[in-house]
Amino acid sequence: MSKSIRHRLSQHHGFASSSLIAVSLVATGILLLVASMASAQQKKSPPPPPPAKFGDPLPGLTGDQLAAFNDGLGEFSDDETPSSGLGPIFNRDSCIACHSAPAVGGSSDIFVTRFGRGTHGSFDPLTALGGSLLQERAIVPSGLEHVPPQANIVAHRQSTPLYGLGLIEAISDATILRGVRTGRNDGVKGRAAIVTDIASGKNLVGRFGWKAQQATLLSFAGDAYVNEMGITNRLFPVENAPDGNLALLKKLDHVADPEDKFDQVTGKFGIDKLADFMRYLAPPPPLPPNASNIFGAKLFLDVGCASCHTPMMMTGKNSVAALNWQRVMLYSDLLLHDMGQLADGIGQADAHGNEMKTAPLWGLRASGPYLHDGRAKTVGDAIEGHDGEAKSSREKYNRLRHDQQKLMAEFLMSI
């Protein structure tokens, strides 16, 4: 922390240097207390070391698991072609095209478009007209899609990073459901998205995607294959028709469905390999703590951001040692919240148009611009854009002094 910041804190709050140390220790203790909540469940062996950099595999993987990660990385990076099933309408020809910054598995400046029709609080995805996802590319120009004139809601969504998704998948439904609290006086409610997982056929808590529309990584992978690349698979065997035009689809689609190929060597399909890659991809590596971050962490809690951006959750029992009883410092409750004017208006799975899932904040420094549509250039802009259940926290943040807001931003950029 700079001398000028120390001076301002001392001047405004009467901190002597000993008091400054005391406050630092209190803030540190708050963060450590969050992590120690898992101590009763933690195994005797120490947790594996954190990853060295973005894009690393989870520490502590077995040889077979590391091989599965690398095989999945190859599938993630491969370019699809029309002969392999790409299209006839699609957004990109590979997974890595949208998930490459700052390293493989990250985010990008690529956005997708969702559309639909909102009427008196209800949402029609206009499925018969190719909605709610617009595929912006086609293998031939005649297949290009357009937002239909019937749509009165059009939203853009940024590609999200995939780091640490295996840990998020390993959090039990019960743990997420415990985060649903009532009777709060800060306006925060939140609810779990309950979705039918197509891979298992079970009703599970959704946790992946901007609307928590997928519950497992296998379903998440299958959905991405068919909707982003046009690769049909055993979970999603039906091709998307350009603007819903089935006759045009028949003319353009010349590869038998499902198009996802089976690998005789590994005994897996492409969606299985992609799920392996995401499952074994390490979380974002945090920066080393410092005095500024400690003060910023306390401000983060004081403002009330942790009401939704829960700092830590715990995985449950898992056959993969690297996912078994692990602390997950994701800064999200994985719940849907009414976001007021910040929401995109798109209803999807169990989420209503006014709801968004609490975005995990880990690795925030590498995923700008911010918010679902990238409207915020800085984390400060993102906080000021919050609405709905987050309105109270936004107002508290706006009452902070500039130097305090800066400390909070530095903390957010370190996690």
Structural summary, described in words:
It is built from 12 helices and 14 strands. With 415 residues, the protein is of the alpha+beta class. The protein has one domain (3-412). Strands 2, 3, 4 and 6 form a 4-stranded antiparallel β-sheet that branches. It has a two-stranded antiparallel ribbon with strand order 1-5. A hairpin with a 2-residue loop joins β2 (111-119) and β3 (122-124). α2 crosses α9 (291-303) and α3 (63-77) crosses α8 (270-279). The longest helix has 20 residues, at 17-36.
Query: Which bin fits the share of residues in helices?
Result: 25-40%
Domains (count): 1
Number of helices: 12
Distance between the termini: 17 Å
Mean pLDDT over the residues:
90
Radius of gyration: 22 Å
Shape: globular
SS class: alpha+beta
**Total beta-strand segments:** 14
Order of helices and strands: HHHEEEEEEHHEEHHEEHHEEEEHHH
Q: In terms of quaternary structure, what is this?
A: single chain
Task: Determine the strand fraction and express it as a percent band.
Answer: 5-15%
Largest sheet: 4 strands, antiparallel
**Poorly predicted runs:** 1-30, 32-45
Give a quick set of tags describing it:
415 residues, alpha+beta, four-stranded antiparallel β-sheet, two-stranded antiparallel sheet, 12 helices, 11% strand
Summarize this structure briefly.
The protein is an alpha+beta fold.
Sequence-ordered SSE layout with sheet pairings:
Blueprint lengths: L2 H11 L3 H20 L26 H15 L11 E2 L20 E9 L2 E3 L8 E2 L2 E2 L14 E6 L6 H5 L3 H5 L16 E3 L6 E3 L11 H12 L17 H7 L9 E2 L4 E2 H10 L11 H13 L9 E2 L12 E2 L7 E3 L16 E3 L21 H6 L6 H8 L3 H11 L3
